[in-house]
Amino acid sequence: MTSLVAFGLAFLTPTAAAGQADIGGYFRVMGRPDLQGGNGRLGYWNLYGRLMNEGSYGMLELRYDVLPREPGSAAPWSAVHARIEGGSITNADAGNGNLGNFRLSQMYVRSGNVLLRDVTWQVGTLEYFFGDLGLYDMRPATLMYGTVGASATYDHGPVELLVGAGDSGWWLYNTRYDAVPTGAVALRLRAAGKLEVGGGAEVRSERHVPGLVNAPYQTPGITYEDWIRGEVAEHYLAEFGEEQADYFPDPEPRTASSWLAVGYVGFGGFGPLLWNNLFLRYEHLHPQRSTFESLLGEDLELFVHDFTDQRTALTVGDEMQLRLIPNRLDAVVAGIWSDQRDADNDIVPSDFDRTWGSTVQRLQIYTTPTVHLLLENAVAREWSRNGNAFREHADSIFSNTDGRPDTRGLENGDSDTRKTWQGKGGVVLNPLGPGIFVRPSLRLLYGVQYSSQNNAFGNAFVETVDQANAFGNVEQHWHHLAAIEAEAWF
After folding, report:
1. What are the b/e assignments for 377-408, b being 16+ CB within 10 Å?
2. Is residue 343 in a domain?
3. 20 to 30 A Cα–Cα from 246, which one of 92, 175, 219, 276?
4. If pLDDT is split at 50, 70 and 90, which confidence band does 397 have?
5. Is residue 47 assigned to a domain?
6. First to last CA, the chain
7. Is the pTM of this model over 0.85?
8. Could you give the number of structural domains in the chain?
């Protein structure tokens, strides 16, 4: 943390060089006393809109122009960029503002007009995205999110072409690093500021290195059901006996790969339509490496490449910004839908085998240039492909598909669907005037959620129905929350 602070100060310290330092950023902080026993968020996640479903967050964006850019010139230029961000602010969340919750998430050098005119070279982190779903705080059309390497972007007139390559191993595996070479390409075409069309693709490949413990493997002779239940070691001992514990099968090498393709269409400037963003993303996820069980008191690592190499996700998102009555009423309408599939799994509910979608609509009424009224509506549906993932009632652990008991526990409740509605409204103070996405914003809000799932918000309620439970069981489908919030770019 000392290094991060020193690094930030270095950007602000004058030097003898003729460069220029800039610092900007973003933060949001809120007070949301939750009188129903929740954690201060209206629902589980941003599927119901980011408003009142996100927590505290802060970010500093730092840039130092080593060689300033001259507008309209072909002269070389260069700048150093860094981003420090994290999700904790003192007294507003469990992290209590500790700097251990922050990280240096972006660090790169960009240089233009070097070797080739209108080409920008970037070395360091390489994240590239086409745009935002602002109401959801999501970026579906993103490439090289976890890649460190180099890229070249040709940007002239209506054409923007990017080619990049690097390594995504640290992002995927952290301290159990293995090299994952990654390459990506993206193209964006612009027309008169009213139309943009783009697309791109990313490919990752992880080859097997003999003898490397962090390479991809599969443990032979185990079944998917035993693995998902955590019973591989138990069944091995039952079949072969404790005297064979030292002869558990050795893993077999594999080669792992993953890829994604994205598409984007943006258009606007027609009548009340300010801008519309449409995103498409299809991804084949990178296989999981391993999990652990206990074998006679020792950690047993199970390599699961073959159980996790058929996971895909198709996501479509759209957001439309409308000016319905100039300086009086603006609206944003957004929707997102995703189909996630796991061809290896047909027996257990999973976040990799589900379909979910929602729509969010926000109106902002400008009673004065700086005092606004906000209204937001969100409707969402989540469906589990492999049975009951949701508990609709406090005692639903006793019933499952068609009322049959599931004593071994592959299902988690009594419904395969979670339906959620959220309504939010309140007063917004915008010192800079009208605009749904104008910041800073000071907001006094009330939000209500109804969900078919019992207690569908972060909480510390008891889930069991054991007769020895000292705290009792509670059932509630409505969640109410008041909030005072501040959000700003600077």
Report:
1. bbbbbbbbbbbbbbbbbbebbebbeeeeebee
2. no
3. 175
4. low
5. no
6. 23
7. yes
8. 1
